[in-house]
Write a structure and sequence with these properties.
Elements: E1 14-17, E2 22-25, H1 28-39, H2 63-77, E3 90-94, H3 101-116, E4 120-124, H4 125-135, H5 144-153, E5 156-160, H6 169-184, E6 189-193, H7 218-227, E7 228-232, H8 239-248
Parallel strand pairs: 3-6, 3-7, 4-5, 5-6
Antiparallel strand pairs: 1-2
The chain binds zinc ion.
Residues 6, 8-9, 26, 28 line the site of zinc ion (ZN).
Amino acid sequence: MNERGCEFCRDRGWIVDLVTNRARRCSCYQARVRSRRRDALGIPPKYADCRLSNFRLAGDVSDQLLEARRNCDRYIEDFLERDGSLRETGLVFVGPSGRGKTHLAVAVLCELVEQYGVWGRFVDFTSLVAEIQATFQQGVELSQADLLRPLQEADVLVVDELGARRPTPFVSDTLYLLINSRYMARRPTLFTSNYYLNTGEDGADIPADRMLAGRVPASLVSRLHQMAKPISIDAVGDYRHELQAYQHR
Ligand SMILES: [Zn+2]
């Protein structure tokens, strides 16, 4: 395909096979389906080009960042089970802002769309909370079911910045229903969060105000433990490199 479109089918997606005299899919069709799936992801423009291949690993990066990227590679590699089913568990990237959590989550989502043709969605937690909140108001056009269905049904969902905003009790219940329904349906979800699920592995004390449990319902935190593998991106020393990398994008 070039800028003027496909030279074989003129973007109709079908060509007539001269031997059988029947229409068949043009070779550009799959590429177009994938690009439509990418467009439907809902990834904000500033993250649209995030891939593992352009994840900043230049210079003096920590082992932790390398390990995070390796974990993503492995996750993508092992996404399709031997029996053809999709992987059930997700990932949760944890660490302060600006470390590349969203970059990695978007990169994994895009790779899964490109390699396996899955349907995916990206949602920012703060917007999601506001949108759910709005469905409780009278006279809104979008019902809660309409809002949540695509998020429940996506093969892979990214929830960015989990805990960035404290939801009201009603919204909390709805969020739990959404995440729990994905868990029950065995659909993987990728999360990013500035807040920790656990206290440090090495017993390091994490202040109470950095814990996810104070930001979202406890039921949701315990579900997260069952449905997503934590990947920490919080080592001191990465921050400046990552800032530079962002500026260079
Ligand atoms: Zn074509």
